[in-house]
Amino acid sequence: LKDGTSFIIPMKLPSMPRLEDNKLHFSFSQAHDTHIVQENIIGVSVIDKPEGWRASVIGCSVRIQAPAETKEDYDRSGFVSVIATSGDQTFIGKIYVTLDRPLFDMSVSPDGRMTLTELDTDFNSPGFLAGFCKAEDFDPKAIAAHADGYHNAEDKESFYLSWNSYMEGKTYGMSLASSVSDAVPGQKYAAYCLPGSYSKWIGSKASEYDVCVKYFTYSKVNFAANGVGVDKANLSISMLGAESFYGGIMMYTSDDELPAIAEEFLSDAAPAIGGSGAGVFGTNMKSYSGKISLFAAPLDGDGKPSERTILPGAKYAIGIIPIDGERVSGEYSVDDVIIKTVEMNQPSATSTVLVTAKEGAKTTTSASATFDITAAVSKFFYRVVPESELAESGMSELQYVLAKGICWDRAIMQASGAISGIDDNCTNLTPGTKCKAIGAGFTTKGEYYLVSIGVTSDEVRLSGGNLSLDSFSTSVVNANSTKITVKFTASSEMTEIRYIDRLTKQEYEQVYGSEDNVFSILTSGSRWDYSSVDPSSDDTIEMYVSPSDTEFILFAVGMDSDGAYTKLKKIEIKL
User: Fold this and answer.
1) 296 and 307 in contact (C-beta within 8 Å)?
2) What phi and psi values does residue 486 have, to the nearest 5 degrees?
3) What predicted TM-score, i.e. pTM, was given to this entire model?
4) Who's near 57: CB < 8 A, 6+ residues apart?
5) CB 189 within 8 A of CB 215
6) DSSP one-letter string for 353-407
7) Which of 300, 302, 398, 550 has minimal CB crowding within 10 Å?
8) Non-local CB neighbours of 276 within 8 Å, separated by 6+ positions
9) Mean pLDDT of 500-519
10) Per-residue pLDDT at 15
11) pLDDT at 278 > cutoff 60
């Protein structure tokens, strides 16, 4: 120092702090977090970064952000270096960051499955060297040197793995067992990949920072689905290498949905892994053995699992996330989600009549049906749905009623015997809406019988002379700048008066548009679009208004006991 004294900073070069990434690709302004793996860290600082890049320490992670595209001075690539202090030792580690587009995407699941997907469709099979090793044995310099040893060899093409250049969305998968024969659950391993053997390295050398790496704690999952039937299966799930795991279940229709489902599992798992999530699809557990309908089932008021409805012929994704005590919620990624799939057997149709349906009561805004079920039905699905909604779904009637219908198990219906009179009602319809009443009954053998009939809501009917506009009248009891009080009087044939109150002329033009639209709302709209009054009561209607408005419109219709309406009545009120 300036006064002549000195001090020693202890270094431990053989055991550098391990960053969870060796190389990261960025787009402009994108941010990545990389975890520092070192015990008993008491201090971490960023000591170097490329021009225009940002890097900061958050806990035991380094957050790196690429420069914005609008920034004038920046490096396209470089190193972010950190210094970490642990006890009496100081460690230095660095990570290569670049704005260059990656040639491939690399993901590794906790059960040791590495998947590589080629991203550069304009590039003809770059080839790659990939493998696994223990985390502490990962040496990117040695891997690059190993590849360079084959650089000019005649058999380099057999040394490097490659994609089929004629395939779109090219992927390659390999497992931990292919490189490490005695993998130990709970042990940390590194999955690595070195791309570009056929092009980039012709006339150049491989760099240690061409090697990409993903670290993971190996978790061996024992998963089995036995006794798979039409709507039932027994699951067995246990795990070595993790004390517990999040387990969840979701129905899906196509394998293309599985990546998005993995995202949902990760979000939903947050409560189990130290964050805040919904906890709707699953829960934290140590192992599971039992029915698929009870797997990760929510608890009822008595603390018992509520059995799920498992649909015949449906596909289910089982999400498993090993819980690592060293990480917090934000340090988990989609790569940590292990997905297993179970497909229920397809049901077979039977000609035996198990379910019948008939049209029920209907109004201008509703259509209903009644289903009768024989004693042979063990599971029953039913739904009344507008035909337009059924068509828009793109599903068959059976698919729709299974996915969106109401399900009754035999235990819910009754222990034995036929069931008569299960009703379903489609409401909030416009007059004359055509609907389908669909019912599907299943036997214990998985045979099903599908019934479908058409039901239609009533058209709006005008009263045939019993009611007219003269059948009810409106009187303004009181009106001032803040409140209008109105009273309806009506003939004895009238059972209900519906009205839309305190409309200014501007509101009428902007919200309702026409008298035909107002009449449609009053005769078939949702209940919250209008108010109603019993004409036999002495109640008055109080309408609170703004002092700045002076002209209002009150629309009303009357209805008799047969559901027929009067024509639209329009009352103008001036203050």
Assistant:
1) no
2) -125, 145
3) 0.67
4) 44, 45, 46, 63, 82
5) yes
6) --EEEEEEEE-SS-EEEEEEE-TT-SEEEEEEEEHHHHHHHT--HHHHHHHHSEE
7) 302
8) 270, 329
9) 82
10) 47
11) no
